[in-house]
Input
Amino acid sequence: MLHTFVVLVEDKPGVLSRVTSLFRRLNINIASLTVGSSETGGVSRMTIVAAAAEDRAHRIRASLYKLVEVLDIDDVGRQSAVVRELALLKVEAGPETRSDLFQLAEVFRARIVDLAPESLMLELTGSASKIEGLVQILLQSNYRILEMARTGRMAMRRGHHTSRVTDALSDAITPNELALANRRQHIAAGMIDEDDPK
Amino acid sequence: MNNLDANRSYNPHAADAELYRQPTRLTGAETIWATMVGEGVRDVFGYPGGAILPAYDALHKFPIRHILVRHEQGAAHMADGYARASGKVGVAVATSGPGATNLVTGIATAMLDSVPMVCVTGQVSSKVLGTDAFQEVDITGITLPVTKHNFLVTRAEDIAAALREAFQIAKSGRPGPVLVDITKDAQQGSAVFDFAAAGPPPHRPHPMLGIDDGSMRDALELLRNAERPVILAGHGILHSGALAEMRALAERMQIPVACTLLGLTAFPASHPLNLGMMGMHGESWVNHAIQQADLLIACGMRFDDRVTGTLPTYAPRAKKIHIEIDPAEINKNVRIDVALVGDLKQVLEALLPEIENRDGSVWLEAISSMKGTAAVRDIQKLPDNGHLYAAHVINDLWRETEGDAIVVTDVGQHQMWEAQYYKHDRPRSLITSGGLGTMGFALPAAIGAKVACPDREVWVVAGDGGFQMTSPELATIAQEELDINIAIVNNGYLGMVRQWQEFFYDKNYESTPLRSPDFVKLADAHGIRGAHVRRRAEVIDAVGQARRHTGAFLIDFHVEQEDSVYPMIPSGSALHEMIRRPSGNPLVETATER
Output
C-alpha cells in the first residue's frame, strides 16, 4: 500500500539524503517526495509517499525519528487530509486542435499557461487520480504529450490539527535561537552577507 | 560574553578551569581538544595526516593521552573497546581520505553493537571541498548509514558546538558512533571558545518512547500469571545500568535468565538463575527453555537472527514482553504482546514495586533436568588423551584468572568457546563484536580496554585468522608498554568457516586452511615475550607465566585443528533443532564447576 508521511525536518544540508537513505536501506521505493518551507522558519516540510507493506509504517516512523534532524512525523495515510499534486503538461497542438484542448482543460479545471504555434501548456492541480485522468484522456484522444512534470503529492490534514513542530521545538530551541541558526546557515551558504543587519 | 577576555589567547600553563569559565579565543585545532577535555576525554586513539595536522600540532597543550595506532581501523576498535570497558565515550582521530575510510569498519562495528563513540576526521579545506582534492573523500556521505549522526564542520566557530552535540548524541538514548569531519581551514581558523555556550540543546527523547498504564498493567498481569517465564538479558542492561534492577526482578520472581552474547556480563554467570548463553551456539537447555517458555521478558535485546532461529518456530507458546529503548526494534523480528518502550532501568524501577515474591522451583527444576549430563561433568576431570582442545584453554584461563579478567575476543569459533567456557561474573568483562562480527577486533579493542582500565587484567582471545587482520597493533602495545596478555587459539583454519564447510558444504575446505607466521617470533620482533603451547599439561603453566610477567605476553595455543562448536543451530532451523556433539567425543559440550 501507499503510505503518506508528512515529515518536518531541520533545514540543513544533507537532511534530504539522510531521509532518502533510510528508505533505501529499508529497500522501500519512494513514489514521490516533495520538500519546501513550512510555517516555521528553519523547518522544512516533506511529503513522502512510499509503497510498503501496511505493517511497516511503524518501523518507518520509528526509524525516521532516530534521525537527529527529524522533528515531527505525521502518518496521514488514514487521516482526513487534503492531498494535492501539481502537473505541467506540454501538449502538441496546432490551430485546428486547440479548441478541443481548451474544452478539455475546462472540464478538468486546468489552466492554459503557455501557448505556442505548435504546442500549449496545461497546469493542473488536484489529486493524483485527477491528473492521471487528464493524461489518459489526452493519450486516448491521440494527443502527443511532449513533456510532463509532476510535483508529487503534498498533504495536509483537515481541521485544526497542527504539525506539533512548534511545540516540539519550543522545548529545545527558542524561536530566536532558531532564527539565529538560520541566519548562520544562510551566511554559510553565501545567501546573505555577514554584515547584513537583518 | 566579555569581549575583552574573549581576545585572550589560550595559555596552556594557566589553570585549566580558567578556560571553561572565561570565553577565550582559540584556534579551531585548540578548540577540538579543549572541547574534548571539557567533555571528560582523557585518552584518544589516532593517526595523524595532512588534513588533521593542525589539530595534532595543538595536542601537546592539553591533558590528553594520544595512543598512536598502526592502522585507523585499530583506532576505531580501540575507541570501541575503551567505551565498552568503561561505559564512557571512546574517541578516535584520523586524517581525511584513506585515514577516514579506514575507520569505517570500526564505526560499523560500534553501530551494530550500540557503542558510544566519537570519531574526529580531518577534511580538506572548505575552499576545495568537492573538487577531488588530494586525500579528499566524502566521509560524512560514506558513514551516513553506519553512524548515529555525523557532522561536517567548515568553520572554527562551529567546532565546539558540533563536538559537544556529538558527545551528547553518542551517549544518549540508544548509544552509537558519531563522526565529526572538520576541514583543515576550520582547524586553522580561530574563534571564541565558550564551552558552556556551545552546549547542545537538551536531548530530545524519541517521541515514540512512552509507557502507558495499560501496557504496564498488561506486563504485570503476564508476569503474575506466567508459569514458565524466561528473562532474555541483552546489552541494553549494561547501557542502562540496570543490573541491580534486573537481578531484583529475576530473584524476586525466581525467573531464569538467558543471555545474549553481549548480555553475558549483564548478569553474573555464577548466579543460580543464570542459564547461560542463548542462540545459535547457546547451551541446549537454554534454547529448550526458551522454546518451552510461556513468557519471555526481553530486556535490552533485539531478537537478532543469531538468537531466534527461524522466526515462525520461535518460542511458539510464549507471550512476549519487550523492554527496549529503541521504538524501531519493537515488532521488528518477533511479534510482541506488550512493549515497554523506554529506558530499561526506569521501566524496571516502575515495575519492581508491583512485583511480589514467587516460587519458581517447578520450572527451574524442569530446566535443570534438561541439562542432563552435559552441564555436570567437569572438563578438568577428563583424562588427558593427548589432544589440546580450545575448551581446555578457555576453561583453564577462566580458572587461573578466577573469572576476573576482561576478556576481549575476536570473531569465530574461539569467540563462541569463550562465551561457553569463561564464566563472567563482572559487568563489562567480556568485550566482543556481536552484531557486525568483525574479525580483527580483539587486539585493538583490548588496547582500548586496557587504556580505559589500566588496573584490570586484560586478555585477548583470538583465532589465528582474525589475529592477523590487525596484528600490527602489537607495535602499539609495545610502544605504549601495555600489559596485555594474548591467547591465540590456533587451529590452522579459518575455523568457523571450516565448520560451516564441514556441516553444510561436504567438507569442501576451500580457502580455509591457513599457514601463519610463528606468532611467538612475531611477538619477539616487537619485544613482546611469548610461548608455544601444544599439550594440555602446559596450559596452566603458560597462563601463569603470562600473568606473572610484567608487560605484554603472547601464548600461541596449538589446538585440535578440526574441532567444532557445539551445539549449533543451522541457519534456517528452529531454536531447538540443534546439531549436537557426536557421542563418543570425549569433550563435553559445556562444563561448569561442581
